[in-house]
Amino acid sequence: MSAHIDDTLILCEDLDTLQRFKNSFLTRFEGTDEGEVTEYLGCDIVRDRARGTLTIKQTAYIQRILAHHGMQNANP
After folding, report:
1. Using alpha carbons only, what angle is made at residue 18 by residues 11 and 24, rounded to the nearest 5 degrees?
2. Distance CA 55, CA 9 (A)
3. pLDDT at 4 (0 to 100)
4. Where are the beta strands (DSSP E) in the chain?
5. Which of 22, 38, 45, 49 could serve as a FRET partner for 8 with CA atoms 20 to 30 Å apart?
6. pLDDT tens profile 14-60
7. CA 47, CA 56: separation in Å to the nearest integer?
8. Is a pLDDT exceeding 60 seen at residue 3?
9. Is the pLDDT of residue 76 over 80?
10. CA–CA gap between residue 25 and residue 15 (Å, rounded)
């Protein structure tokens, strides 16, 4: 049996714990560490460390749906 999993995202409050988990995970499974996430499954992810916030935006996804239905110039 084989399984293919793409786009794994790991979140953690503690950087040491995160690094230990990633190291352990990557010794057991083939993969790469792509660094801090800025896009995931079509969503833009914006992190402001100074404010302690994480914002997830679906702007590109929404624009694709509107274009698909010919509504890209719609005014809400």
Report:
1. 120
2. 15
3. 58
4. 39-40, 43-48, 53-57
5. 49
6. 999 999 999 999 999 888 888 888 998 888 999 998 999 999 999 98
7. 9
8. no
9. no
10. 15
Residue 43's Cβ-count burial label (10 Å; 0-12, 13-18, 19+) is: middle
User: Torsions phi, psi of 60, nearest 5?
Assistant: -65, -40
Please name every residue paired with 48 in a beta bridge, in sequence order, or none if there are none. 53
What is the rounded (10 degree) CA torsion for 58, 48, 54, 72? Answer: -10
**For residues 2 and 41, what is the distance between their CA atoms, to the nearest angstrom?**
23
What CA–CA distances, in Å, run from 73 to 36, 58, 69? 34, 17, 11
